[in-house]
Amino acid sequence: MNFPKDKCSSAIVVTTARLWHAAIVTIVCALLADCAASASPPATSAELTIGAILTDPTAHADQSMTISGEYRGWEGGYGSPPVTRSDWVIKDATGGIYVTGQSPAGLDPVADRGKSVTVTGTIRVKNGKPYIEAILAK
């Protein structure tokens, strides 16, 4: 690319380059701001209950959430585990649901039933039955 050699033409080239740079920065900032505004934080236990998930699983499918409840370990009565035999149950006042993925560190699936736990994860649905895919359980 050949640039003009006089000062006036050089100033136009520099100004044009700066305008393009400013336009690109503005577009990137606008896109980032839109992404940040549309990102919703995980629902909390005050906003979402296990009962609500069980009542309408598809409405909550793929939703990120954090919920607290009672650790029920491998307690029966909730159907078959959706993913593995190591899936465990969390229960609140509205119902119980399986959790797959990370289990709370140090909790025994039989001996520690009844302890308080908090799970952060994503609600999944398999064969019409919801479960939580845990990212963090404590």
Q: What is the count of distinct domains?
A: 2
Hey, roughly how much beta strand do the residues contain? Answer: 25-35%
CATH architecture of the largest domain: Beta Barrel
General form: elongated
**Tally of individual helices:** 3
Total number of beta strands: 5
Order of helices and strands: HHHEEEEE
Specify Rg, calculated over alpha carbons: 26 Å
SSE arrangement:
Elements: H1 7-38, H2 50-55, H3 57-60, E1 64-73, E2 88-92, E3 95-101, E4 116-126, E5 129-137
Q: How would you characterize this protein structure?
A:
- By secondary structure, this protein is of the alpha+beta class.
- The protein has two domains: 1-39; 50-137, Beta Barrel (OB fold (Dihydrolipoamide Acetyltransferase, E2P)).
- 30% of the residues lie in helices and 30% in strands.
- It has a five-stranded mixed barrel with strand order 1-2-3-5-4.
- A hairpin with a 2-residue loop joins strand 2 and strand 3.
- The radius of gyration is 26 Å and the shape is elongated.
- It starts with 6 loop residues before the first helix and ends with a strand.
- Residues 36-46 have low confidence and may be disordered.
